[in-house]
Amino acid sequence: QVHLVESGGGLVQAGGSLRLSCAVSGRRTFANYAMGWFRQAPGKEREFVAAITWTTGNTYYVDSVKGRFAISRDNAKNTVYLQMNNLKPEDTAVYYCAAQPSVARWSITTLNKYAYWGQGTHITVSS
To answer: How much is the average pLDDT of 91-97?
Structure first.
């Protein structure tokens, strides 16, 4: 079973930066997977933030984080990263790492297509 563990969350001032890490385990290879980051702010539904295809490295972002966030992965370390720059108070949320087997282009941003989830890491951006 695929297991994901997020780390790197915490409290940061607006305009600051954080890097989240997601350690992925449980398979020999994650070929054909997409790895995604989602977030859930207080009182809101969980939403897509960013994703990357494991093999090809294609990236996808929600409009609100384009130019500020960057997703990457280190296949040798089985780790996915989310570099978050110029953080804003509205970025405050619990951030979840997720994995989607057999990814298709149409499903890359679709929450319910991700089969495996981490427990989340809290990001608080103060003003």
So the answer is: 98
Angle at 75 between CA 102 and CA 121, to 5 degrees: 80
Angle, CA 20 vertex, CA 95 and CA 99 arms, to 5°: 60
Tell me the C-alpha distance between 30 and 47, whole Å.
23
Over residues 49-62, the mean pLDDT reads 96
Residue 106 has a pLDDT of 82
Structure tokens at 38: 């989602």
Write out the chain in H/E/C secondary structure.
Answer: CCEEEEECCEEEECCCCEEEEEEEECCCCCCCCEEEEEEECCCCCCEEEEEEECCCCCEEECHHHCCCEEEEEEHHHCEEEEEECCCCHHHCEEEEEEEECCCCHHHCCCHHHCCEECCCEEEEEEC
Determine phi and psi for 101, rounding to 5 degrees.
-70, 150
Give the position of tokens 């607006």.
Answer: 14
Nearest alpha carbon to residue 4 among 83, 108, 115, 111: 115
